[in-house]
Amino acid sequence: MRFLVCPVCGSTNIYYEAGMIEGQKYKCNDCGYVGSFIIEMDEKEYQRFIEEKKSSRQ
Predict the structure, then answer these.
(1) Among 33, 35, 45, 54, which is least packed by CB within 10 angstroms?
(2) Which of 48, 38, 36 minimizes the C-alpha distance to 9?
């Protein structure tokens, strides 16, 4: 399974907002980020990402 991840907050609560001439655009429902840059990860990569994010907060 692949996850779309917000580059700002790390949330997977992302939805596709627009396309066509501008290219793909996504919106994060958690932090409000809107943009075309989105991180795509598999389950193992996402778990590693979350662990690194938690350890960097401490």
Answers:
(1) 54
(2) 38
**Cβ-proximal residues to 14 (8 Å cutoff; 6+ apart), any chain:** 4, 5, 6, 26, 27, 28, 29, 38
> Residue 44 and residue 23: Cα distance in Å, rounded?
28
Task: Show the tokens assigned to 10.
Answer: 């790390």
Going by C-alpha positions, the residue among 58, 24, 27 that lies closest to residue 7 is 27
H/E stretch holding 48:
helix 43-57
Predicted TM-score (pTM) of the model is: 0.79
